[in-house]
Amino acid sequence: MTDHFSFTVNATDGAARTGEIRMPRGVIRTPAFMPVGTAATVKAMYPEQVKALGADVVLGNVYHLMLRPGAERVASLGGLHAFMNWPYPILTDSGGFQVMSLSALRKIDEEGVTFQSHIDGSTHSLTPERSIEIQGLLGSDIQMQLDECVKLPNSEEAVEKAMRLSLRWAERCRVAFGEQPGRAMFGIVQGGAVERLRVESARALVDLDLKGYAIGGLAVGEPQEVMLRMIETVEPHLPREKPRYLMGVGTPDDIVESVRRGVDMFDCVMPTRAGRHGTAYTRFGRLNLKNAKWADDPTPLDPASACEATRSYSKAYLHHLVRSQEILGMMLLTWSNLAYYQELMAGLRKAIAEKRLEDFVAETKEGWARGVRDGEAEPVGKVES
Amino acid sequence: MTDHFSFTVNATDGAARTGEIRMPRGVIRTPAFMPVGTAATVKAMYPEQVKALGADVVLGNVYHLMLRPGAERVASLGGLHAFMNWPYPILTDSGGFQVMSLSALRKIDEEGVTFQSHIDGSTHSLTPERSIEIQGLLGSDIQMQLDECVKLPNSEEAVEKAMRLSLRWAERCRVAFGEQPGRAMFGIVQGGAVERLRVESARALVDLDLKGYAIGGLAVGEPQEVMLRMIETVEPHLPREKPRYLMGVGTPDDIVESVRRGVDMFDCVMPTRAGRHGTAYTRFGRLNLKNAKWADDPTPLDPASACEATRSYSKAYLHHLVRSQEILGMMLLTWSNLAYYQELMAGLRKAIAEKRLEDFVAETKEGWARGVRDGEAEPVGKVES
């Protein structure tokens, strides 16, 4: 095992890349999908299951963890890895995005953001320095800069203002992070749907010579084509030798299209959240198990899956569990969805290595389309309510 | 594997016995604790976990399953074993107890009971014959007679009336069940807290020559001493060569005391329900993980446990999960509780086989008392709210 952070691109196919991030806690095979472990748990999953599916890294949320159980408490208990029984790499977000989306009474100024907890109304503040401090207390392997993420659509002025503030915060985070050989801090490209601002943000962050670059502020409700255009806009300005992380994305189709455009890392609550709400993602598209049409269906989600949940339980049983609001329904569908996401990533990595990505993408989309044609599934790109 | 139902007592120690029920679907080691799989799932557990803990049989509830997904549907899907991925023995209750406790607008007469579903208000009826038919459709290995279970305390007249009705229903269930070599139907001794009625019920059921005998209508709020006295009253009248099942019991202390008095089988929602509500049962007593005193405790519930959930997660982490209402908290505590219950049963079986049951009971109670003395735990006999 290595004692420092490194990234190697092993193969490319068009703009797509496959490679490895090496860190003291393990190797992250890219393109990678990172299951979201919001409050120190990937919801409804035992950590060893998450690893067994092929996830090399999970995401933790600073906003949730700073409020409960608290970063200092996690540190005193040995760090987030020990706390949640996940000895492999952890990436943490900076807290900024969830402060905007979950907390009340936010006040943003040059210094940072002040907000009230959605749990108990208590007042907290988050500065670039405090965000990095918290991520350090948690023991995070890949830490994200604090940024301001504005809602889209928004005025170009507001988007530009937030992008410039985020750049100044990136610099402060870089200083606060300092040198930590086994860990990395990533910057976040902002700029909304404005190409000029995206390019400026990317160039300025690259000047900071960070370990990796995220594209933030996307998948916040804009059409997929806007998101993909922003990736295409930013990609040429990011160094080839650094990992690229598209934050909060996405559907299987979003992931496939983003990998084609050179993205290396993804995180999204979709497979876990959808699993808790009765939706399955499979090779044959997206299925709503709540639907009465599954009540008498003895077939599993995918008899050829390597995942026990996908292969060994009938749709009729999953339908029954979902209708009965049984915890096992959430457990099985979360498990199956994460398995499908990891299977998709493994397929993408293999296809890139074999220089047959376009064929793989076509086969994958044909599988989803077949499910829709057979009346079994809905398009995978559609976001569930 | 055998093709018929049999029970063998392998060893005794005082009134306590250890033995084996053999059936086509597997061997049930007694004394046995049967996890409750209400709606075709032991809540928050994968079926293979339940088996791995040492559970040889699970319980299914006719009331829940007849309402959703429906007995005929389960039959058309291949039976309850296939439906819920549990190929081992299943015992089903008759539905009577939960009709009384969960449904609205009950009408009981000689023929059976009519009631409204708690799910959608639809009207259903359950007769002795229909209960056995449903249990057959489910494919249940051990089926229970329909009985009328009255609340305690109650008038002797009401208790006697219900006991006599239950006896007539036992006879009708016996006829409806007929001869099913690989399966068994058990009768249920009723009679409230009235010794005379309990004895009469037991004797009349024994005259029916059933495959096993349950003691019903206990653990419904009466003091433990009343329950134990009723077991002592009934036990001499039950045949030594048939299994004895104390329905709906109980706390670890209830189980230990009942095993001492000759009971072979138990079921109870306590370990699973308590697990979903933040309570752990361990060798050191009962712990409420919601309590703030665990917030900084890095120690696991029991470092010597064979169960991963009990051994590998800190109390601080479990506390965090419970406070955050995370599904993983329910999963880990349910797992740990069922592990402790199965560990206790294995300990009881071994102690009886080695004729050291009283020593084992004393050691077990000393463990619980030590937890209470150390301020770590609450008495295990106390029923959580």
From TrEMBL, chains A, B:
Residue positions binding substrate: 93-97, 147, 190, 217
Keyword Glycosyltransferase attached: yes
Chain segments carrying region RNA binding: 248-254, 272-276
Entry EC no(s): 2.4.2.29
Active site residues per record: 93 (proton acceptor), 267 (nucleophile)
InterPro entries given in the database record: ArchSynthase1/Queuine_TRR, TGT, TGT-like_sf, tRNA_ribo_trans-like
UniProt enzyme class: transferase
Keyword entries, A-Z: Glycosyltransferase, Queuosine biosynthesis, Transferase, tRNA processing
Record flagged with keyword Hydrolase: no
GO cellular component, one term: cytosol
Biological process according to GO: tRNA queuosine(34) biosynthetic process
Domain of life, source organism: Bacteria
UniProt pathway: tRNA modification; tRNA-queuosine biosynthesis
Domain tRNA-guanine(15) transglycosylase-like: 15-367
A GO term, aspect molecular function: tRNA-guanosine(34) queuine transglycosylase activity
PANTHER family, sorted: QUEUINE TRNA-RIBOSYLTRANSFERASE (PTHR46499)
The protein's assembly and partners: Homodimer. Within each dimer, one monomer is responsible for RNA recognition and catalysis, while the other monomer binds to the replacement base PreQ1.
Function: Catalyzes the base-exchange of a guanine (G) residue with the queuine precursor 7-aminomethyl-7-deazaguanine (PreQ1) at position 34 (anticodon wobble position) in tRNAs with GU(N) anticodons (tRNA-Asp, -Asn, -His and -Tyr). Catalysis occurs through a double-displacement mechanism. The nucleophile active site attacks the C1' of nucleotide 34 to detach the guanine base from the RNA, forming a covalent enzyme-RNA intermediate. The proton acceptor active site deprotonates the incoming PreQ1, allowing a nucleophilic attack on the C1' of the ribose to form the product.
Family from the record: Belongs to the queuine tRNA-ribosyltransferase family.
Record-given protein name: Queuine tRNA-ribosyltransferase
Biological classification of the source: Bacteria, Pseudomonadati, Pseudomonadota, Alphaproteobacteria, Hyphomicrobiales
